Amino acid sequence: MARNIPIPLNGLTDDNPPKPAPSGADERAKLAAEARANLATARELIETCGYHRRDEELAELEAVRDGIAFRRSGVGWQRRSIC
After folding, report:
1. Which terminus of the chain faces fewer neighbouring Cβ atoms within 10 Å, N or C?
2. Higher pLDDT, 82 or 17
3. Domain locations along the chain
């Protein structure tokens, strides 16, 4: 019995959309500023509302923003340097 399995055709047909161009320095700076503002708002809301269930996620995002990677361990998150 034959099974119908979808096969991705990316790159195999002529009507594919073009690959996105890498962001320029200005665009990256704009996105980084937006991310910093959103993280500051998130931190403020968590502190104001006392909703500390998201402390780990917020710490992870802030670490990524600061260039530090986090790795999930058995009991939580562990910091490690990206470089």
Report:
1. N
2. 17
3. 26-81
Angle, helices 25-49 vs 55-65, to 10°: value is 160
The DSSP-derived string for 16-68 is PPPPPPPPPHHHHHHHHHHHHHHHHHHHHHHHHHT-GGGHHHHHHHHHHHTTE
Give the phi and the psi of residue 80 in degrees, each rounded to 5: -150, 150
How far is CA 14 from its chain centroid? 31
| Rounded Cα–Cα distance for residues 24 and 28 (Å) | 6
- Taking only the tens place, the pLDDT of each residue in 14-29 is 676 777 888 899 998 9
Gap between the Cα atoms of 68 and 66, Å rounded: 6
Compute the distance between CA of residue 43 and CA of residue 31 in angstroms, rounded to an integer.
Answer: 18
Q: Which residues are 77's β-sheet partners?
A: 72
User: 66 near 74, Cβ under 8 Å?
Assistant: no
